[in-house]
Write a structure and sequence with these properties.
The structure is a single chain. The protein is of the alpha/beta class and 241 residues long. The protein has two domains: 171 residues, Glycosidases (TIM Barrel, Alpha-Beta Barrel); 63 residues, Golgi alpha-mannosidase II (Immunoglobulin-like). Helices cover 27% and strands 20% of the residues. It contains seven helices and twelve strands. The strands form four sheets. A five-stranded parallel beta sheet has the order 1-2-3-4-5. The chain has a three-stranded antiparallel beta sheet with strand order 8-9-10, with no helix packed on it. The protein has a two-stranded antiparallel sheet with strand order 6-7. β6 and β7 form a beta hairpin. It is globular and about 60 Å long. The protein starts with a strand and ends with a strand.
Length: 241
């Protein structure tokens, strides 16, 4: 049903365009083509690749991953209002494959830039529960991993809240999105839900610092409804006015 193309910066785009068109013609289907073009410091390189290939491929959003990495390193000093700046998901969401980490960025790999454990749930909320991008979940974030290389032992823990987030995405993450990316340490958004998915709709609040608050709109149909933290981090209940 599709192909994952590795290190496409080393492959002629002229050849790839012809190959993709031929494969789709021979297979008589719109094959999904996902390309890896690792760039962390220049969004224009990804945009130029999209132009050169005529949008034939989706691209892994390495720029967004790098923002996650920097945010996790900086802690509360990172300005969350900029978390989507210079990313493919911001500029071309239909072609963006969003991810927190992958086999290239994990510890002991050549492109190591592993997102710290505390930030991983925030990163997954930003790729799973928003309308932009096509999320890709890393194997070790579901199943753990233990390995050793040159005497260096690595233990990667699964993200405890990830299975629940995947369920929330499947059942609730639909409808109009309203963004509140307006505070350096506390951002949020809401999804209004739709008629096709019963009880859909959600509100997301993320913080990289001290406790905060935010007033957000989610839609008149939720007036009087009580919201809880489905991930279990907080026990308070919020009643929509």
């Amino acid at each position: 049903d599709g192909f994952r193309l590795d290190a496409v910066k080393h492959i002629s785009t002229e050849f790839l365009n012809e190959w993709i068109d031929t494969m789709r013609e021979v297979c008589d289907k719109e094959l999904l083509i996902i390309a890896e073009n690792w760039v962390v410091d220049n969004i224009k390189e990804l945009e130029d690749y999209v132009e050169a290939t005529g949008g034939r491929t989706q691209l892994f959003d390495s720029m967004l991953h790098h923002n996650f990495y920097l945010a996790a390193q900086a802690g509360q000093e990172y300005d969350l209002t900029t978390i989507f700046d210079n990313t493919l998901v911001q500029n071309n969401p239909l072609l963006s494959i969003t991810f927190v980490d992958n086999h290239d960025s994990q510890p002991l790999q050549s492109l190591e830039s592993f997102v710290k454990e505390w930030f991983r749930p925030l990163g997954y909320a930003m790729i799973l529960l928003r309308e932009g991008g096509i999320p890709c979940v890393f194997y070790t974030d579901v199943y753990d991993a233990n390995y050793e290389e040159d005497g260096n032992k690595v233990e990667l823990k699964a993200v405890a809240s990830l299975p629940q987030m995947l369920k929330v995405r499947e059942l609730l993450a639909y409808g109009l999105q309203r963004d509140y990316l307006d505070h350096p340490n506390c951002i949020g958004w809401t999804r209004e839900g739709d008629e096709e998915h019963e009880n859909s709709g959600l509100a997301i609040l993320l913080s990289n610092g001290e406790e905060g608050f935010k007033t957000m709109e989610i839609g008149a149909k939720f007036a009087g409804k009580t919201f809880i933290d489905v991930l279990g981090y907080r026990t308070e209940e919020v009643v929509v006015r």
